[in-house]
């Protein structure tokens, strides 16, 4: 699922600057 979302964002001109292993890590990365 992460790879699919990353691909969609990249194809639409967004730079993916980080990835998280799970939802908790994603929220922590978003807050920082």
List its traits:
32 residues; mainly alpha; flat
Produce a short descriptive summary.
By secondary structure, the protein is mainly α. 59% of the residues lie in helices and 0% in strands.
Taking all Cα atoms into account, the compactness measure Rg is 10 Å
Global shape:
flat
User: How many H/I helical runs?
Assistant: 2
Q: Given the helix and strand composition, which structural class is it?
A: mainly alpha
Characterize the biggest β-sheet: none
Residues in helix, %: 55-70%
The percent range for strand residues is under 5%
Q: Detail the poorly predicted runs.
A: none
Helix and strand sequence: HH
End-to-end CA span:
23 Å
The chain-level mean pLDDT equals: 92
Q: How many extended strands?
A: 0
Task: Describe what you observe in this structure.
By secondary structure, this protein is an all-alpha fold. 59% of the residues lie in helices and 0% in strands. It has helices spanning 2-11, 23-31.
SSE arrangement:
Elements: H1 2-11, H2 23-31
């Amino acid at each position: 699922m992460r790879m699919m979302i990353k691909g969609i964002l990249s194809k639409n001109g967004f730079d993916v600057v980080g990835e998280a292993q799970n939802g908790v890590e994603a929220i922590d990365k978003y807050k920082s």
